[in-house]
Amino acid sequence: MNFQLEITMATLSNNPVTARAHTNIALIKYWGKKDESLIIPYTSSLSLTLDHFYTDTTVRFDESLSTDQIIIDGQIPSEKSRQRVRDFLEIVRGKAQIAIPASISSTNHVPTAAGLASSASAFAALAASASKAAGLHLDATELSKLARRGSGSACRSVFGHFVEWQRGTNDADSYAKPLPDTGLNDIRVVALTVERGQKAVSSRQGMHLSVTTSPYYPAWVKTCQADLLQLKSAIEKGDFTRFGKISELNAMRMHALTLSADPSFTYFNGQTLAIMNLVKQLRHQGTECYYTIDAGPNVKVLCQQSTVAKISATFAQVLGDQNVIIAKPGPGVQYL
């Protein structure tokens, strides 16, 4: 072991780093991997980072440890979850050219595995804290590439507000980038929780089934690219109506893949469908709003500041105040 590495190890073991990353909702969905190992998607995607849901993660590399110590939400996670974190840490250690165990403590302020992109905030926060604790000084693009290796949608949570993930073709050109400020800064998201437990079909399982068995997957890839261009145009022009319609339609096109897979499956439950119908009813009555749904039963209602009070009150009567949360566009990764 050379002297320079000894100095690096001593510095690492005494400098824990804490990072916060916010979750995001995909408006143009990412659904399917061309490269499972590198997490390279078949399609580009577009998301909105939210202020209310986030993950705080602290990482310290410590040569006195015999193995990685991983605590999530105050508990030792399952072996499957621990292995996923360890695999990601090996990527960080490889980049930093170190072989030091790490202590990781992470707290999610978002329901886990219920369709609210908890893995996005979790791995964006882990990428930021672990890379900095390991002595790496990554710019935002490189951090986005790293976060993608943990969870595809995590590459978008590196940035705030509207974010596009360019699908790319390899590890070097598949990363997210923020979109310019627009006239849609008054967007509000009413997050409706109808179920808090683990979903029966994980996002990874669902994507794989859709890609390999749905006869409509090739059409999805083509249509998704057109949806992305149209949504970017609506955002640039501040056109909320087009923005909402395209977001809602793209969500339904994604979920059509789950229904056409073999075996077929769905993330919806009865309350999901009832909420979708109520959104349409509100719209018919003159309150403009649209829904989007990721890989889970919970629904996000897209609206504007002028209507958010009425919409949130409507759904509070149906679901209870505790299951209705108003979110705004949120920031990118922060070091605490």
Automatic annotation (TrEMBL):
InterPro entries according to UniProt: GHMP_kinase_C_sf (IPR036554), Mev_decarb (IPR005935), Mev_diP_decarb (IPR029765), MVD-like_N (IPR053859), Mvd1_C (IPR041431), Ribosomal_Su5_D2-typ_SF (IPR020568), Ribsml_uS5_D2-typ_fold_subgr (IPR014721)
Magnesium recorded as keyword: no
Domain Mvd1 C-terminal per the UniProt entry, residue ranges:
190-322
How would you classify this enzyme at the top EC level?
A: lyase
The UniProt keywords, alphabetically, are: ATP-binding, Lipid biosynthesis, Lipid metabolism, Lyase, Nucleotide-binding
A Pfam family hit: MVD-like_N
Q: Name one GO biological process term.
A: isopentenyl diphosphate biosynthetic process, mevalonate pathway
Presence of keyword Cell membrane: no
Molecular functions (GO terms): ATP binding; diphosphomevalonate decarboxylase activity
Q: What is its EC number?
A: 4.1.1.33
Residue limits of the Diphosphomevalonate decarboxylase-like N-terminal domain? Answer: 21-176
Cellular compartments per GO CC: cytosol
Give the protein family.
Answer: Belongs to the diphosphomevalonate decarboxylase family.
Q: What is this protein called?
A: diphosphomevalonate decarboxylase
Specify the species: Lentilactobacillus hilgardii (strain ATCC 8290 / DSM 20176 / CCUG 30140 / JCM 1155 / KCTC 3500 / NBRC 15886 / NCIMB 8040 / NRRL B-1843 / 9)
